[in-house]
Amino acid sequence: MKTHLGFFTAFMVAAWVTPWCVAQNTGDPLPSAPKGFYLLNDRQTAVESMTLPGFLSGFTLRLAWSDVETAQGVYNFDLIKRTVTHLQGKNLKLTLEIFTSMPPAYVLQGAQSTFLGPKGRAPTPWDAFAQARWQAMLTALAATPVRDSVVGADVRLADHPTLTAVDASVIGLQMIRDVKGDLVRHGEYGRAKFIDAVVQNISASRQAFPKDYGFVGFFRIQDADRSVPLDEELYTRLQTEFMGSGQPGLGLFQELWSDEGPVADGLGYYLTRQSGANAVMLQALTSWKRPFQDPAKVASGNPDGALDKSYVDYGCMYYEIYYADVVATDLRPVFEGWAAFFAGQ
Fold first, then answer.
1. Residue 196, pLDDT score
2. Residue 191 in contact with residue 225, Cβ under 8 Å?
3. Average pLDDT, 10 consecutive residues per value, the chain (345 residues)
4. How many domains in the chain?
5. Helical spans, DSSP H, in the chain
6. For 147, phi and psi rounded to 5 degrees?
């Protein structure tokens, strides 16, 4: 771990990241933002067979909606349950990300409104059938019983102490991002309709998992109306609905973390405006040791400098990292040093 921060700067940043539940000054504690390093799942390898070094705080399980709902109302949450059980035995936490951009076939067939999403044809965020089915799946998932070894009994997944964060997905898009403009040019698109749909999608997740931290992927996004930027109006609405005092809370997420990004005055602009403690979550763009894309953006071969930069720029203390980096012996001191630092904040 490098010590780029001066004493005064480090002190001021540490003061800024006061625990969120305290900063909100409410009678009931809000979900605590997770922090530390979370291993990104490899869908080809079960977590039980993976090395989980001591510097990890948890594990991120990523699944397609179609993985957990094979037909209407037919759910298979076995992998989630097994993962929770294994992680609890290792004293690790779980972040759960279910991709609405990869819906079951019946949802796509039943949708009245579709578009070409990031993973292919998908329902629009405002499609009523998709919204109803997504909420039904979340309700069933939250209620599914999972063994809690601490109490020695089954508890609802939404109440399980191992689950700490849930992605607040946007139907069809997954994140708030429309790189090619396929959604904003849709014949049924309207700004108010889209923003209302985003709020409804996020609300479904926050209502199903009120005890767990929620986060949404948020990027710059624009439509034909340039009088007020779409992303600005959307961010303001999310603040109003989720980020105020006593509200359920919402963090912003990007998967562009590397030596180069996200850039604070570029795609990271809205991350810099998050005022809650550790309200920014970052996923590695690729592996520093075994890059599978954009190797020039991790040319350092070491995430130490990227950790320093993202902590200074965004106060970020939550990172999702790839397995090749987790098991790299030369990176272990870096991760151990930063994990100890985050634990002290």
1. 98
2. yes
3. 40 32 43 92 87 97 96 97 97 97 96 93 97 98 97 97 96 94 96 98 95 95 94 95 82 96 93 82 97 97 97 95 97 98 92
4. 1
5. 7-16, 20-23, 65-68, 78-89, 105-110, 128-143, 191-208, 230-238, 304-314, 323-326, 332-343
6. -65, 130
DSSP string, 30-85: PPPPP-EEEEEP-TTS-GGGS---TTEEEEEEEEEHHHHEEETTEE--HHHHHHHH
Is the preceding omega at residue 104 within 30 degrees of 0, hence cis? no
Map tokens 């993985």 to a residue: 67
Is there a domain that residue 33 lies in? yes
Domain with 190 in it: what CATH number? 3.20.20.80
Nearest to 316 by CA among 263, 259, 253, 258: 253
* DSSP secondary structure letters along 177-221: --TT-TTTTSTT--HHHHHHHHHHHHHHHHHH-TTSEEEEEB---
Task: Give residue 333's identity as a one-letter amino acid code.
Answer: P
Predicted TM-score of the model (pTM): 0.90
